[in-house]
Write a structure and sequence with these properties.
Blueprint (H helix, E strand, L loop, with lengths): L1 E3 L3 H12 L5 E3 L3 E3 L3 E2 L2 E2 H7 L18 E3 L11 H6 L3 E3 L2 E5 L2 E4 L3 H27 L6
Parallel strand pairs: 1-2, 2-7, 3-6
Antiparallel strand pairs: 4-5, 8-9
């Protein structure tokens, strides 16, 4: 099976397929890796409290939305990452560039996409820590 795109839906589909014993190829796309839960609160609680749902397109450089956050709600939700999917047996591919007949052209950008996604994790943790520090005056450790 080829799953195109490593946003939340693509990763969830790849995760379910590989755990059902299917051979899975995942064409990675821009995404951000974040924790599903942090200090006892769900990711969406943090996003709401930090005002992330109040942001407009005009606040982003060149009016371009940031990459999606990779989360799953399966079994109540858990952390999911493309690197973990690879460790579970998913074959990672770069971005699909073109296709003709039974041929696909695949970019060689998978590692770059994964590195950029990983950079989002500590950035989110820092933002959550700063919010918690402002809210309750405490430093929170993971």
């Amino acid at each position: 099976m080829l799953v195109v795109g490593s946003g939340g839906s693509g990763c969830q589909i790849a995760d379910e397929l590989v755990h059902a014993g299917r051979r899975v190829y995942l064409s990675v796309s821009r995404h951000r890796r974040v924790p599903r839960r942090l200090w006892g609160k769900d990711l969406y609680w943090w996003l709401d409290k930090m005002g992330r749902f109040d942001v407009t397109i005009d606040s982003f450089l060149a009016r371009r939305w940031p990459p999606s956050m990779v989360v799953t709600g399966v079994d109540g939700g858990y952390d999911i990452s493309v690197r973990e999917l690879a460790a579970d047996g998913v074959t990672l591919l770069g971005r699909i560039q073109d296709g003709y007949g039974d041929q696909l052209s695949v970019a060689g950008d998978a590692n770059q996409v994964l590195d950029e996604a990983d950079e989002a994790y500590p950035t989110f943790l820092d933002a959550a820590r700063n919010y918690a520090r402002t809210l309750c005056g405490e430093d929170l450790a993971e």
